[in-house]
């Protein structure tokens, strides 16, 4: 495995960048459709579904990157260093993040923070489920 596993801070910043980079254009579309600005869609299931689809499919098309990770030069990789597959990303994002996080009422997200901080390989719950890790680009 790559010795340069990405830590908590850079992964958090990448997630924040993704949030704002996605929310602004989507909000503009909703504004054009409804004629008024509202961010209520971003607090419910609509955002969860859009973001989960984004995190599942974009890394498959973009060699492990999403926009925030590309900006910060980190990417999702498979443990065996081969190409990411739909199975990896489905297990990582849909099962590992979306389902497990909702079923545990967010406890798995808290556990994942501690895993990134304290594990040498920096892998989270969803990384273990998906057979992935996040690494600095080389």
From TrEMBL:
Coiled coil: none annotated. It is found in: Cell membrane. Pfam families: RDD (PF06271). It comes from the Bacteria. InterPro entries: Pra-immunoreactive, RDD. It is a multi-pass membrane protein. This is RDD family protein. It comes from Cytobacillus mangrovibacter.
């Amino acid at each position: 495995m790559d010795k340069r596993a990405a830590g908590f801070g850079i992964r958090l910043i990448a997630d924040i960048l993704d949030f704002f980079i996605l929310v602004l254009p989507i909000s503009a579309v909703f504004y054009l459709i409804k004629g008024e600005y509202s961010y209520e869609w971003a607090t419910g299931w609509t955002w969860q579904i859009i973001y989960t689809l984004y995190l599942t499919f974009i890394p498959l098309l973009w060699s492990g990157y999403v926009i925030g990770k590309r900006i910060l030069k980190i990417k999702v990789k498979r443990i065996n260093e081969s190409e990411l597959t739909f199975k990896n990303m489905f297990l990582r994002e849909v099962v590992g993040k979306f389902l497990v996080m909702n079923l545990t009422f967010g406890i798995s997200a808290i556990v994942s923070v501690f895993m990134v901080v304290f594990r040498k390989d920096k892998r989270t719950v969803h990384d273990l489920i998906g057979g992935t890790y996040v690494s600095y680009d080389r």
